[in-house]
Amino acid sequence: MTGKFAALSFALAASTMSVAGPAMAEAPLPQNRIAEDPAGLADLVLPYTPYLFDFAVTSMRSVAEITYNGRRYDPITRSLVVTGLEVDRDGVHFRIGQMRVATDQMILDDVAVDTSGLPLDPTTREVLDRLGRKIVVGSVTVGLDLDAPRADYIVEATARLDGIGAFDLDADLRGFHFLAPLDRIEGEAGGGRPEIRGRLASADLAFTDMGVVPALYEVLGRQQGLSPQAARSAAAVIAGAAIAGMFADLPGGSTPALQQKTRDWSAAIQAFLKNPGRLQVAFRPDEPFDLSRLTDRVVDARDVEDLDAEVFDGQAVTQALLSPQALVLAPDAPLADVMALAETLLKGRGTPQNGGRALDLIMPAAMDGNRTAVALLAEAIAMNPYVTIAQEKLAPTYVSLDLALAEGLPFAAESLDAIGRRLSPAEIVGAEDEAVSTWRQTPVGQRQRAAEIEAFRTRDWATIRRLAYAYYEGAEMPRNIMRAYGWASIAAAGGDAVAARLRDELTRAAGSGKLVLPLDRARKATDDLWALILGGDEPARPAGTSTPAVGGASEESTTVPPAAGAPAGGAGTGGGASAGGAGSGDPSDAAGDRRPGGAGPSREGSGRPGGPNGESDDPAASAPPRAGGASPVPADPGGSATTPAPQPPRAEDSSSKAGDGIEPPEQPEGDDGERETAQAGRISMSSR
């Protein structure tokens, strides 16, 4: 009968979870989402879960009597809510007053299980009678934080049985898989066992007594002819001795350190049995522990040591409640204290949540590029996309979040979209270009710039297409839709069919308003860039002839055939398509001129933020001219549709902005995978 009860419970839980299972995200899909679509399926399926639940229950009514008072979909908590659910079959009868099932949470309130018909052993039956708990009442909560791509799970579960006890489980599992035997999958009859794969980063299991331990002493004492107190003492002695000796015969032998641990465990368990309260077992391995070591072979002493288990007797550490005085910092308080207080206010730990004040504390450090502050900024905006931010801070915030997206910080993508909905298209384009410009001054950005130059120099269309996707997705580089479109268009023009599809998809998305992409400017900039790439096939222009403007400013360039051995078109674009052009690293190129009648910030000259040693950020201007004139590397086309009048030739210097010759910059030393960042301009993603 117990097996029937378990089967019914599991089947019911499976039917409710299955209707919400396909949806794995928590937030609605923003209009401007680029990198991923985590909630689209949830938005589609979850509102229909009440009807799917009806169908699941109806199909199970051939197994048991199942009724319920009502069911609905809650759009705020994104949960299926069922009330008054009752299941009855033979000796199995239980009721759930309210059940809430979401993609990442299950809450069962007012659960009542009638044990009178269950085949319990006599001791358990007698203990329940002693407690007066023929009907066991309680609640169950299960929370799941899932990283689906990596199969990482953070599980928090609690079962509270009134008058009996409470069980708590917290576990951090990495790459966790529960593998069914292959013979079952293939339909063969066999005795294979399921396999557990994954690693345990940490875990806590706890039991809090609410009356069951004293009742157990009374029942066991009466069975053995002992008083409850004598039974308590006997249990403590027996359990202590058993724990102390349980690992003595493990393969590999018990080390002195393990022997000391078992003595500590024995003492904690004896203390709990003498004075029942709360008993906790914690696993804190130095490195995530491979769970297959516990299932694929005989457990030895090394396995037990590596799990690094500790047993504690006593009440759980509760959250300290903070007074208003504890939430005030001195004006010269260390940055670490400021960030700690901001996190406390943001998460509402020990004090009511105050996201606005937390953001005030976070913003200065975030604008200065502190990585911890930027991470908290992303979390704060994801938590409340409508939090108040001064208008003049929106564009810098977007830049910080775009850099955070390249860094792979949590919440960066959704926060970036939230801020993007408050900016004009020109502001978004300018901010994306500024983020790329800042990123290019980091070691990893410089190496990426050199790779882009080489791809254009060799006309490596596959690499250019890959870079287009990287700019589109914000994958290991800041998101920049203008560059993504320009790079895709150029690769498509070179014959890459996959790039052509991306170009067309971006075009459709821009036309429907799903993303910000000024198509006219993007096409003009791409056309100009393409003409410059092909410049090596055209006759050289007279010295001093100017190229198309960058952000309205004249830039000089002389086009000559490529050097011997180089493909026509010469070196790369030096950084690629951007807002005002398909290849500028300059925010003013991206958004145009923000003076009256313009769309971007007013900048002197070309508007590029200076790089190290006064050099331009853009690779097209990062090297002196080669002998014989300017390089065929295309200068960055600007957002202006007009070509200014030719300007007198400027004297050569290392800071000229365009038209200079180019060699791929020397790649800095270091691991290509490192996430180094330098203090550059206004934003830096390095920790301080």
From TrEMBL:
Keyword entries, A-Z: Signal
Location of the region described as Disordered in the Swiss-Prot/TrEMBL record: 536-688
Signal peptide from the UniProt entry: 1-25
Ranges of Gly residues composition bias in the record: 567-584
Keyword flag Signal: yes
Comp. bias intervals (Low complexity): 619-633
Domain of life according to the entry: Bacteria
Full protein name: Uncharacterized protein
